[in-house]
UniProtKB/TrEMBL annotation:
GO biological process terms, semicolon-separated: fatty acid biosynthetic process
Segments forming domain Beta-ketoacyl-[acyl-carrier-protein] synthase III C-terminal: 246-335
Enzyme class: transferase
Positions in coiled-coil regions: none
Residue ranges of every copy of the Beta-ketoacyl-[acyl-carrier-protein] synthase III N-terminal domain listed in the record: 106-185
Residues of the full protein shown: 66 to 400 of 401
Family: Belongs to the thiolase-like superfamily. FabH family.
Catalytic activity: malonyl-[ACP] + acetyl-CoA + H(+) = 3-oxobutanoyl-[ACP] + CO2 + CoA
GO MF annotations, alphabetized: beta-ketoacyl-acyl-carrier-protein synthase III activity
Protein name: beta-ketoacyl-[acyl-carrier-protein] synthase III
Known pathway: Lipid metabolism; fatty acid biosynthesis
Organism: Ilex paraguariensis
Function: Catalyzes the condensation reaction of fatty acid synthesis by the addition to an acyl acceptor of two carbons from malonyl-ACP. KAS III catalyzes the first condensation reaction which initiates fatty acid synthesis and may therefore play a role in governing the total rate of fatty acid production. Possesses both acetoacetyl-ACP synthase and acetyl transacylase activities.
UniProt-listed Enzyme Commission number(s): 2.3.1.180
Keywords, alphabetical: Fatty acid biosynthesis, Fatty acid metabolism, Lipid biosynthesis, Lipid metabolism, Transferase
Length: 335
């Protein structure tokens, strides 16, 4: 059995924050940010918008493009590291879409690699598990965990959601040719938003009472990042991973129409393309307008490229996500 991408959609919050806006809260400038990253604007969740409402909007558009009824969806994978509910936000999506039959929905937590891992997971469910229509949604609100006083990281991130519908098909129509997936827990020190140390060092008082108990509710620290190390990791690991996915697919770079990387930094995108000897006119980039939207960045850029007519039916795309964990994941797909 094969699986193919049949629809995509995206959604971004209304509030736009420019580099000049950021220069009012930290010591930075539009020139510094745009030269070092390629980013000029980002969207930030505010008011009644939630991560789930963005994800639902993106999913609705993907279903509309595919002309598939919400009732036909049998699995929803929400790739997010910034959920509305720590226990999982995904079940809210089929509820909001009005899917009948209580389809399975759960969260996948893998930061900026989440969407590619969701794609590969969807393919496994379809090929082995009898699923037919799987919604894969990448959605993140990094603004929730950014330290807005840290100019080294706050300038990078934005909030968004993007979705694709993956459908079962005959094997000759298969749209996922090869993938390559990795993690490196050692690198976590260079990029994380870890739980804050909680005081769980209880002791017994003289009257038999447990001192220091009960614990305070847990909370997470803001994004901690060593930008230079993350940059080095991405530029080294991503080209290798794409080459490995191409090899598994039995393809070479020359048969790829588009390079679609996680939109973290234009200099990372350019460096990876150069290492792969990939011409810049076939590299998809939209981070100028949205910044790094974590798990949303690949489906958001794909959706824009499809709707603008850049990516057309039958085109082959080398996609790669990379980031916190550390994790990195590449997939060769056909639109
Ligand atoms: N404005 C002005 N100056 C700044 C800013 C800013 N926003 N940020 C840092 N600087 C200063 C620093 O203080 C430093 O000053 P100094 O030389 O006086 O000490 C100088 O600029 C250089 O700082 P670096 O951190 O060395 O700058 P670098 O060229 O490495 O660029 C950047 C920083 C843009 C963060 C880059 O390292 C990068 O993009 N790395 C990848 C990060 C990334 O993609 N992270 C997300 C991964 S995805 C995920 O999973 C969440």
């Amino acid at each position: 059995k094969g699986c193919k991408l049949v629809g995509c959609g995206s959604a971004v919050p209304k509030l736009q924050v420019s580099n000049d806006d950021l220069a009012k809260i930290v010591e930075t400038s539009d020139e510094w940010i745009s030269v070092r990253t390629g980013i000029r604007n980002r969207r930030i969740l505010s008011g009644k918008d939630s991560l789930t409402s963005l994800a639902v909007e993106a999913a609705k558009k993907a279903l509309q493009m595919a002309e598939v009824d919400p009732d036909a969806v049998d699995l929803v994978l929400l790739c997010t590291s910034t959920p509305d509910d720590l226990f999982g936000s995904a079940p809210q999506i089929p509820k909001a879409l009005g899917c009948k039959g209580n389809p399975l929905a759960y969260d996948i937590t893998a930061a900026c690699s989440g969407f590619v891992l969701g794609l590969v997971s969807a393919a496994c469910y379809i090929r082995g598990g009898g699923f037919n229509n799987v919604l894969v949604i990448g959605a993140d609100a990094m603004s929730r965990y950014v330290d807005w006083m840290d100019r080294g990281s706050c300038i990078l991130f934005g909030d968004a959601a993007g979705a694709v519908l993956i459908q079962a098909c005959e094997s000759e129509e298969d749209g996922l040719f090869g993938f390559d997936l990795h993690s490196d827990g050692d690198g976590q020190r260079n990029l994380n938003a870890a739980i804050k140390e909680n005081e769980t060092d209880y002791s017994l008082g003289s009257n038999g009472a447990v001192l220091g108990f009960p614990p305070r509710p847990a909370s997470y620290s803001c994004v901690q990042m060593n930008g230079k190390e993350v940059f080095r990791f991405a530029v080294r690991a991503v080209p290798q991973s794409i080459e490995s996915a191409l090899e598994k697919a039995g393809l070479t770079g020359s048969s790829i129409d588009w390079l679609l990387l996680h939109q973290a930094n234009q200099r990372i995108i350019d460096a990876v393309a150069t290492r792969l000897k990939f011409p810049s006119e076939r590299v998809i980039s939209n981070l100028e307008n949205y910044g790094n939207t974590s798990a949303a960045s690949i489906p958001l850029a794909l959706d824009e490229a499809v709707r603008s007519g850049k990516v057309q039916s039958g085109h082959t795309i080398a996609a790669a996500g990379f980031g916190a964990g550390l994790t990195w994941a590449s997939a060769i797909i056909r639109w």
